[in-house]
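We emphasize that the prediction below concerns an isolated chain of 521 residues; any contacts that depend on oligomerization or on bound cofactors are therefore not represented. The input was used exactly as deposited, without trimming of termini.
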Amino acid sequence: MELNVLSIIIPVAALIIGIVAGKIIFAANTKKQVEEADSQAQKIVSDAQTTAETLKKEKILEAKEQIVQLRAEHDKAVLEKNKKVNESETRARQKEQSLTQKIENLERQAKENDAIKENLNRQIEVVNQKRTELEKHQEEHIRRLEKIAALTADEAKAQLLETLKHEAQTQALTMQQEIIEEAKLKANKEARKLVIQTIQRTAAEQTIENTVTVFNLETDEIKGQIIGREGRNIRAIEAATGVDLIVDDTPEAIVLSSFDPLRREVARLALQRLVTDGRIHPARIEEVVEKTRKQLEEQVLDIGERTVIELGIHGLHKELVRMVGRMRFRSSYGQNLLMHSRETANLCATMAAELGLNPKLAKRAGLLHDIGKVPDEESELSHALLGAKLAEKYGENPAVVNAIGAHHDEMEMQYVISPIVQACDAISGARPGARREIMQQYLQRIKELENLALAYPGVEKAYAIQAGRELRVIAEADKMSDADSEKLSFEIALKIQTEMTYPGQIKVTVIREKRAVNVAR
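Result of the prediction step, given as a token string:
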């Protein structure tokens, strides 16, 4: 196609050049110019023809090269297609050979299987014959055994099953007991570890308090002013405050006695103001006591707010905050109630965090668990139930309400934090130095603990050890088995729990020992 184009282009180019040359000749004014123009035109035509021939030859060469290249590519593609066809034919032949071999193998295996099947059928027939013979021998053997043992096969089977059942039950009980003991051991170990970590992370103070307050005086002359003429002043103070004033030979001191620390604090502050003012008479006493009581109420609210802020508890009702402040002036077994509640709150938060629970909710329940001990009005309810009622009244979380009411098992525990509060309350009250117990009451409790164990038959001796935290019971080995000793331990623990009042917990250990003693002479 390129040759055809060139054959068209060359004459057209010559024609154009001729026209241009004619114009040049026509434009010449002189013959010389015409001749020169003719000469130039001929030269241009000659050059154009030369160039056209050169281009023609080049294009012809390029076309030949392209034809050769296309032919080579075509040959290469044909070779590749032939190669692929050959490979496909080779793979097809290989697959055909493989399939043929597999078919031959399957036919051979089928023949072998038929032979094996025939052999198995013969063996099955032999086995069936032997089984029939064996059943006959077995029936004969059973008849002989029944005749000898005077028992039928069903009766013997029933006895055997009963024996196996009894043995299986015994083994199952043993395994169950081992599993329970192992679980108890692990649970006690983890619980002790958790409790110890919680106690170690909580710094506690010595919170024992007395039921008396000593009011110091500058001189003994002020005692007369406090007593007043015919004891009018001291009677007015006792009537206004509800506190007994003990004026004795103690130099420069008066003892304020009351089981209510709030009343003692009111009396102390009122006496301090009266002594400082110097005007001591019944009317003035009533006025000062009333002012002191109001100021102490403000102080109670301030103590409650400060406590709540320090513990990081938010959204507590104002009345509950005031009750928390009143705890500062209450005590239980000599332990300050506010310090006990704060300690319980911190223990609850730590233990809840260790268990992956909500520490803020546990801390809230720990702080409020004893608010039933500081009510504004007397109630016949126990302090746990009264505290739960107050918490519910002032919109506390149901989990907190349940923890308050259940920390002495007077309500059913429905939330996970309830046993945490109960445990932390026991930890705070039972730790060394937390509470004071009169020696006579302590000895009486120890004696009752030992007598309770001695009342059971088969108990030889009983010892209360570790300050009454553990009861060791020595059982008579001839009158009691190992199972009976376990039952005795459970019954004693249950009776102590239901009949006695004690701080913390008491471990009951029953020891049964058989000693065989002989003397070689």
